[in-house]
What we know:
The complex is a heterodimer of chains A (about 150) and B (about 180). Chain A is mainly alpha-helical. Chain A folds into 2 domains: about 1-95, Orthogonal Bundle (Helicase, Ruva Protein, domain 3), CATH 1.10.8; about 105-150. Chain A is about 65% helix and about 0% strand. Chain A has helices spanning about 1-20, 30-40, 60-75, 80-90, 105-130, 140-150. Chain A is elongated. Chain B is α/β, with parallel strands linked by helices and about 180 residues long. Chain B has a single domain, classed as 3-Layer(aba) Sandwich (Glutaredoxin). In chain B, the strands form 2 sheets. In chain B, strands 5-4-3-6-7 form a 5-stranded mixed beta sheet. The interface of A and B includes residues 87, 89 and 124 of A.
Amino acid sequence: MRMIIFASLALVALSLPAAAAEPIVSFDTDFQRERYDRMLEEYRCLKCQNQNLAGSNAALAGDLRREIREQILEGNDDKAIDDYLVARYGDFVRYSPRFGGANLVLWLGPVILLVVGLVAGVSMARRSQARRTPMPDQASITTARALLADKDA
Amino acid sequence: MWLRLLPLLVCVLLGGFLYIGLSRDPSVIPSPLIDQPAPAFTAAVLSDEPAASKAFDSDSMLGEVWVFNVWASWCGPCIAEHPFLVAFARDHDVPLVGLNYKDAPDDARAWLQRHGNPFDAVISDVAGDVGLDYGVYGVPETFVIDADGRIRYKHVGPLDELSMQEGFLPAVRELTGADS
């Protein structure tokens, strides 16, 4: 029992530094905080490209977090903040690409490939069905059974 | 019949995409700022006497082609790039403005004293606000801005012999119309 308590305390102690790394940011309303948390997940840190703003320790990510927080407090809507980031860093900064332009390949490519695959699959299945040998009729089956029975006897 | 060719077609297409993917540098992100007006700013100039610091207004550069180089004393690759900037400033009559990005002014001054100062003006951007407006995500970065105040060329990472000869200098030459 004592061992378990000790182990859980150690786990809690280990998890504290991670939470303490970033100064806690304050907001006027919970809604603002929710928007902030959500936006940090949605944008990429360009310095360490496979991390989002929430997960990155790079100085640039810190600056962008600060900028997003300030804009939320100023009352800018999501679209305005999105435009701000995309105007500076391009579409690459977003983790969910905009629908339109060259991004259509990203959005529609999988659907088109799926349709092509389905059409190919169905047409191949049809073809192999057409080629399949027909079922033997009842008479041949009876004959075959009789022949097999003879052999066994 | 076309079904027989489909796997081949898919392979060729996939191979093409992968080949393009291999030949691209993922750390270079195409900037949306190319051919856009350079963000205007007013910021303090890094001067030898901190008390006598003046403000720099980017609008004062309108009417001439200029080069805007983002650097910092804490930036390792900037040291490798520096000789190319020094040579550029020596050989060209194009204003070279430095943006000292997220740096302590004292460190920046010491760095310039040690390595030489090729800049016509150095702007102190301690908080990184100007850098943010220019979409800076790695230091060094170099912008070429035309007489109308538009960003016409951007280089991410240190300038070296190859990027000078094949990207940066041709861009400057095209804008200035000089053949130097």
